Amino acid sequence: MDVFYTDLDHTLIYSYKHDIGREKRSVEIYKGREVSFITEKTYRLLLEVKKRMCIVPVTTRTTEQYGRIDLGIGKITYALVCNGGVLLKDGQEDPAWYEQSLQLVRESRNEMERAVWLLEQEKSRMFEVRYIKQLFVFTKCRFPQDAVRCLKHALHPSKTDVFSNGEKVYVVPKNLNKGMAAARFQQAVGVKKSAAAGDSAFDVPMLEQADLAMAPAGYGRINAGTSASVYEMSGKHVFSEELLEFLLDNF
Q1: pTM listed for this prediction
Q2: What is the CA radius of gyration of the chain?
Q3: In angstroms, rounded to a whole number, what is the distance separating the alpha carbons of residues 77 and 88?
Q4: 111 contacts 155 by C-beta, under 8 angstroms
Q5: Which residue among 70, 86, 138, 250 sits deepest, i.e. has the most Cβ atoms within 10 Å of its Cβ?
Q6: In terms of C-beta density within 10 A (0-12 exposed, 13-18 middle, 19 or more buried), how is residue 239 classed?
Q7: pLDDT tens per residue across span 81-116
Q8: What whole-number distance in Å separates Cα of residue 150 and Cα of residue 63?
Q9: In this structure, are residues 185 and 87 in contact, taking their beta carbons and an 8 Å threshold?
Q10: What does the pLDDT look like over 139-153, one tens digit per residue?
Q11: Which CA distances in Å does 110 have to 150, 179, 202?
């Protein structure tokens, strides 16, 4: 089986805050409101990709948040949510996968609990601190970079990674990343060849795990550790369209 591992937000789908042109379709409704979209071209390209390979979304979204997404391309059998800590098959969580994930992160548990405590004291925090399924910690801060610096100083770097994405702040165990999830999936399901696409630091391990990897223009400058085998798109068009065309031409 050939697999295409793909991040969702800012890679395939875009929130209502982003201008992706008028030719778009809604893929997520939240509280009665259309909040995420894909371009019509992305939709057509996804249909072609789905004919050739298994599409596996890999996202930090929770099971509930992922469940709101409907790309409109038919059944997607597998998805890796909670940064790869949870495997969904036909929309249902695989309990054995989750238990293995908990075992993988157990050595980071004390540091994760310390991260929760530190973020609860964070003065710029503007959202509750969530310890998602005992897998990773999430909140929002007015000054996310300051919060990240404090966390990195206070937490043991061999046990945790700390990221920010806009106002969002994440603390993730070292043994919970998208690359490890892709490797586990490959072993569990049997994957011949893999491609991957992503736009953030969360995606670096997954991109470096794949046979063919795609990232937005300028990605290598943002993430200096990115492997040279990761192809940066031109940035002339919507990233989702560029990466899917590149995938179809080169995989």
Answers
A1: 0.94
A2: 18
A3: 8
A4: yes
A5: 86
A6: buried
A7: 999 999 999 999 999 999 999 999 999 999 999 999
A8: 30
A9: yes
A10: 999 999 999 999 999
A11: 17, 23, 22
